[in-house]
């Protein structure tokens, strides 16, 4: 069985604890008025022969790199499955002129947003210069909670397509070269790469096969954006858990009524060459087929864009046998009126057991008052909690004081 792949859908996903942020379908149909402008095929790299390595930092479990535009440093999300994007504020600061009429794109929730197409004269990564590439523009830096991540733009596949990329996620290093680097001990994988789409590799499941994008801008597991195969997955008796509520925020805003089901999929492979014993696969109706950071971190990966080959080297010996990550089962979200609220609940978790609901106000968390939490404090709280080994999500229990509507607040203790 071949799973149908929707080639016009690519949201990149960002995780803040259990909150997913999705971009627009960034490669979606360019309007007829600008059909001669193809962001995937413009620009040059100088020098022609190059080999440069850059360190990156994690933000929300996503790789951010530093690059230079007009002598000024910026922080960009390194995203192999999206075109390069700049926010409107930076477009204005650089005084870039549009090269085509504005286009209407659809985000992962089906909402339409407008983007502009611009020519960027120069962008530098170390001594490597990208000249006259096309960039897309949108107002993503002002969209909450995407703004919490603190990046100034997206460095995507239309800039990377002429290079060989080595992703050393364990040591937080990315190498760009004009030729294939040493790949002894790596397993070669056939790869597809076409305009308006990131690099694609084949995954083989018991319920069907499909091409998935290698997506460094997605910090979740493996995303399978079609519900047509859920019957087959249930027949295979995979363990599952469902999340409902507002856990997806896109460029078009926060979708309040979302649903995803995570399945613990067993015995599949990468291109029939790399066996996987078990790994979580998220199923929704987004139309996107993505391999995110949680899976990519299991390997050191070389992406050879020009020759359409990928090379995988497993970091740890033995089978990849991943279970569901432990979670208390509630998604916290800042609300301008209420402070911190629960925006989504996951099934078969302590939060569901204690009958917590989306919309419940979190008065306090482990004794820390949350009812007057500001947007800025929320961002700081969420990111410090990801890095702090003593943060609540890394503990075996958490104490919440919850208020539902006008009812009296109650205290609950969630235990794994």
Labels describing this entry:
single chain, 416 residues, mainly beta, Cathepsin D, subunit A, domain 1, six-stranded antiparallel β-sheet, 6 helices, 32 strands, 44% strand, globular
Write up what this structure looks like.
There is one protein chain. This protein is mainly beta and 416 residues long. Among the domains are: 154 residues, Acid Proteases (Cathepsin D, subunit A, domain 1), CATH 2.40.70; 86 residues, PDZ domain (Pdz3 Domain). Helix content is 9%, strand content 44%. The longest helix has 13 residues. The protein is globular, with a radius of gyration of 21 Å. About 8% of the residues have low confidence.
In brief:
The protein has 416 residues and is mainly beta. Among the domains are: 24-177, Acid Proteases (Cathepsin D, subunit A, domain 1, Beta Barrel), CATH 2.40.70; 330-415, Pdz3 Domain, CATH 2.30.42.10. The protein is built from six helices and 32 strands.
């Amino acid at each position: 069985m071949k799973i149908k792949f929707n080639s016009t859908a690519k949201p990149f996903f960002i995780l803040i604890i259990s909150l997913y942020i999705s971009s627009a379908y960034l490669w979606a149909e360019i309007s007829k008025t600008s059909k001669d402008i193809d962001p995937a095929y413009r620009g040059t790299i100088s020098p022609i022969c190059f080999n440069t390595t850059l360190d990156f930092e994690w933000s929300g479990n996503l790789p951010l790199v530093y690059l230079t535009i007009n002598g000024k440093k910026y922080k960009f999300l390194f995203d192999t499955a999206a075109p390069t994007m700049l926010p409107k504020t930076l477009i204005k600061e650089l005084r870039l002129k549009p090269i085509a009429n504005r286009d209407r794109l659809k985000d992962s929730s089906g909402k339409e947003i407008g983007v502009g197409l611009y020519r960027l004269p120069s962008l530098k990564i170390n001594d490597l210069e990208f000249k006259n590439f096309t960039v897309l523009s949108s107002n993503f830096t002002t969209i909450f909670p995407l703004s919490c991540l603190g990046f100034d733009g997206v460095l995507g596949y239309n800039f990377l397509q002429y290079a060989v990329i080595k992703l050393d996620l364990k040591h937080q290093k990315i190498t760009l070269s004009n030729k294939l680097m040493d790949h002894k001990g790596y397993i070669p994988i056939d790869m597809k790469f076409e305009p308006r789409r990131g690099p694609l590799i084949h995954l083989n499941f018991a319920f069907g096969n499909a091409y998935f994008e290698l997506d460094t801008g997605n910090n979740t597991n493996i995303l399978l954006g079609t519900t047509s195969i859920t019957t087959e997955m249930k027949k295979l008796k995979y363990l599952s858990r469902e999340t409902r509520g507002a856990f997806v925020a896109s460029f078009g805003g926060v979708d309040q009524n979302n649903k995803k089901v995570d399945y613990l999929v067993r015995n599949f492979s990468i291109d029939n060459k790399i066996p996987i014993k078990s790994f979580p696969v998220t199923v929704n109706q987004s139309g996107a087929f993505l391999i995110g950071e949680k899976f990519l971190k299991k390997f050191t990966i070389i992406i050879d864009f020009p020759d359409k080959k990928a090379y995988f080297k497993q970091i740890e010996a033995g089978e990849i046998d991943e279970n569901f990550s432990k979670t208390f089962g509630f998604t916290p979200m800042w609300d301008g009126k209420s402070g911190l609220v629960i925006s989504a609940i996951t099934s078969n978790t302590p939060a569901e057991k204690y009958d917590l609901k989306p919309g419940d106000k979190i008065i306090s968390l482990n004794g820390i008052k949350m009812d007057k939490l500001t947007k800025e404090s929320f961002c700081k709280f969420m990111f410090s909690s990801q890095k702090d080994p003593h943060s609540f999500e890394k503990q075996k229990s958490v104490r919440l004081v919850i208020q539902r509507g006008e009812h009296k607040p109650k205290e609950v203790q969630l235990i794994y």
